[in-house]
Design a protein that fits this description.
- The chain contains 21 helices and 27 strands.
- The protein has an 8-stranded parallel sheet with strand order 10-9-8-5-4-3-12-11. A 5-stranded parallel sheet has the order 15-14-13-16-27.
- By secondary structure, it is of the alpha/beta class.
- A hairpin with a 6-residue loop joins strand 22 and strand 23 (585-591).
- The two termini are 36 Å apart.
- 54% of the residues are buried.
């Protein structure tokens, strides 16, 4: 489908004083790129890359409107005039590609901590947020005036910095949402009670900001359509708020959101377990009641989905965030008729949401350049080299793609009959099928850049000698390693044996989670779906401990409960023995919180354990006169993002 066949996606649209050339919005999202509260060069390069890639409209991450709002370290302090030079760098970089850019203004209210500001957290009412667990100070009417003035001040800074307008965040993490929601606003004055009262601060901010930016700049409002919490805002009230916003005559568009950025964050930045387009009921309902353009969001992975939402009248513009994080050229490729070349977002949340949850800057599991757009790569070698890549998992595919893109002649060999490595096995679980996109996308790039791919080939020194490469990249992955306590018991198997079909556990199954991620939980679901009675045990505080940062924990627990999967934490396996009576296995378990030892019997035991590097060829390569790189799990086993990053580094280094 070429760009011309996207009838709606590539049509222009008027947003007040602005005209966007297409309907794809790079919506506001956190990046953790700020330096000492100010915009950085990385901000400018990051947004400029998406402008160059064809986005119709860019909306930056939030700019704090008041010193009491400092919920995380790397927040842009928009109330500081020192931010203006950084704003100019951002807007000039984006405007160079003829794309309008707006700044999102926000005060996070009670969804914050005083850790950084050393000031009381402000909110409409003294109701502690479930994540931050800090009782906020209920703001006085005088402080409300100060909040409103803060929005106007930051709007002035943004206009001075060259922005084409601003967006007010009143959605997932905002003091304005706190006022709008009956769950967090229990005031009895003119800012509480009825919806018109609860919306009063929003309308006052709209008035103040419009006066600050004037008629030649755009103003948008982002509304939460359903907080998904008890007693919170639902779609009916959200629609009413939208009509009140429109009735001011001072707003140019309405953006939408779902959930609350703490209690129901897993629905805002939904993982692959949530279907695409899941939040489109919100813009659809609002669009029926207002005439302003409405932005829809909700895990859009490709331009076809976006086109369909527009064609069905669900929204006027589509917010594509992770899709453009994964591929800055998302829009350009669609317009050129090369949608299948888009490096599709996995919705894995590992390097975007998850990385920022660890207070690191935003990246992408499958795009090693995301977050490093301001870093110049070394100039490719003037001489094209012959490169041999051994291993067709994500590390090898990325190394091959990068090397070929930089002008080298690349051959990739893979022992299996298809590429993909461990990713192909992980994605064989129905609930994780989208994860295969990481290797599918890389395979597409390899083919585009002319990589010669040979599958079903086992590499040895003879093959290396026959290829006569100038450089070898070893990306042979890792192999399962039995836990010390497993001995030779036949009914203790690794998760890979379950996934590749060499083992077929049945009856009662104990699954030992030593990895704390999707490996154990996805195989537990697979076995439960096959009729097994599954119990997952772990030495961690929770099963799948790292699922929390990728926002998969809530949905895992919901599914586990529905499938009858039981979970036991803070336990360590101390030994295993055959159960002579049942033919199964009896484990000796230590509960390390109490020192208690007990026995647990099952028909089968499945282990999600640390593998060992498959690096046997590495020592042999050292005997040859060839430049060699060892990357990914054959260097040391980690997760897919490390494989992709190291593949890119190796390809650049050749």
């Amino acid at each position: 489908m070429s760009g011309g066949q996207y009838r709606y996606l590539f049509s222009p649209l008027r947003l007040g004083p602005l005209t966007v050339r297409n309907r794809v919005v790079f919506s506001a999202h956190l990046t953790n790129y700020a330096e000492d509260g100010l915009p950085s060069e990385q901000h400018a390069a990051y947004y400029a890359a998406r402008a160059a890639g064809g986005a119709g409209l860019i909306i930056t991450e939030e700019h704090s409107t008041h010193p009491t709002d400092w919920p995380y370290e790397k927040l842009i302090h928009g109330f500081n005039p020192s931010a203006i030079p950084g704003y100019r760098r951002i807007t000039e970089a984006v405007h160079a590609h003829d794309v309008p850019i707006l700044a999102q203004l926000n005060h996070n209210g009670g969804q914050a901590s005083s850790m950084y500001s050393r000031l009381p957290v402000w909110a409409p009412s003294p109701i502690a947020d479930p994540m931050f667990r800090e009782v906020p100070k209920a703001v006085s009417t005088g402080e409300i005036v100060e909040i409103v003035r803060g929005y106007a001040t930051v709007a002035e800074h943004c206009v001075a910095g060259g922005f084409d307008g601003v967006e007010l965040q009143c959605s997932h993490s905002s003091i304005v949402r706190g006022f709008l929601s009956p769950a967090t606003n229990i005031r009895t004055d003119s800012y509480g009670g009825s919806l018109p009262n609860r919306a009063r601060i929003l309308l006052e901010i709209v008035d103040a900001v419009r006066e600050a930016i004037g008629p030649r700049h755009a103003l948008g409002v982002r509304i939460c359509g359903d907080e998904l919490i008890d007693g919170g805002t639902t779609i009916d009230e959200a629609v009413h708020v939208a009509t009140m916003v429109e009735s001011t005559g001072k707003v140019d568009y309405i953006n939408t959101s779902i959930g609350v950025a703490t209690a129901t964050l897993f629905m805002i930045e939904a993982s692959m377990h949530i279907p695409p387009g899941y939040a489109m009921f919100i813009p659809s309902a609002i669009r029926q009641k207002v005439s302003l353009p409405v932005v829809g969001v909700g895990r859009f992975k490709d331009p076809v989905q976006a086109e369909r939402a527009l064609a069905d009248g669900q929204c006027d513009l589509v917010g594509v965030v992770r899709g453009q994080i994964a591929d800055a050229d998302f829009v350009a490729k669609a317009r050129a008729g090369h949608a299948t070349d888009i490096r599709t977002c996995l919705s894995c949340n590992q390097e975007c949401v998850g990385r920022m949850g660890l207070n690191r800057w935003l990246g992408c599991i499958e795009n090693p350049v995301t977050g490093k757009e301001s870093v110049r790569l070394p100039t490719p070698s003037a001489r094209s080299r012959q490169v041999l890549v051994i291993g067709g998992g994500p590390a090898g595919l990325q190394a091959a793609s990068t090397a070929a893109q930089r002008g080298h002649r690349v051959t990739l060999v893979e022992r299996a009959e298809r590429t993909g490595g461990q990713v192909a096995l992980a994605a064989s679980v129905p609930s994780r099928a989208e994860f295969l996109d990481v290797t599918r996308n890389l395979l597409t790039e390899c083919r585009r850049y002319g990589v010669r791919i040979r599958t079903g080939v086992t590499a040895d020194l003879g093959l290396v000698s026959a290829e006569q490469p100038d450089a070898v990249v070893l990306a042979t992955g890792a192999t399962p390693d039995r836990p010390w306590w497993a001995g030779e018991l036949d009914r203790i198997v690794d998760i890979r044996s379950v996934l590749d079909g060499t083992a077929s556990p049945h009856g009662t199954v104990v699954l030992v989670d030593d990895l704390g991620f999707h490996q154990a939980t996805s195989v537990a679901e697979l076995l439960a779906d096959r009729g097994c009675a599954v119990r997952v045990i772990t030495s961690g505080m929770v099963v799948g401990q790292d699922l929390g940062i990728t926002l998969d924990m809530e949905t895992w627990n919901i599914r586990a409960d529905a499938k009858g999967i039981t979970q036991d934490t803070d336990v360590v396996v101390m030994g295993g023995a055959p159960d002579e009576e049942t033919g199964g296995v009896t484990l000796t378990i230590l509960r390390h919180t109490t020192g208690e030892t007990f026995e647990l019997s099952a028909d089968w035991v499945v282990c999600a354990s640390h593998p060992r590097p498959a690096d046997e060829l590495w020592a042999d390569l050292s005997t040859m006169d060839v430049v060699a790189h060892r990357i990914g799990d054959c260097l040391t086993p980690r997760r897919a993002h490390a494989a992709v990053i190291e593949g890119h580094r190796a390809g650049v280094a050749i």
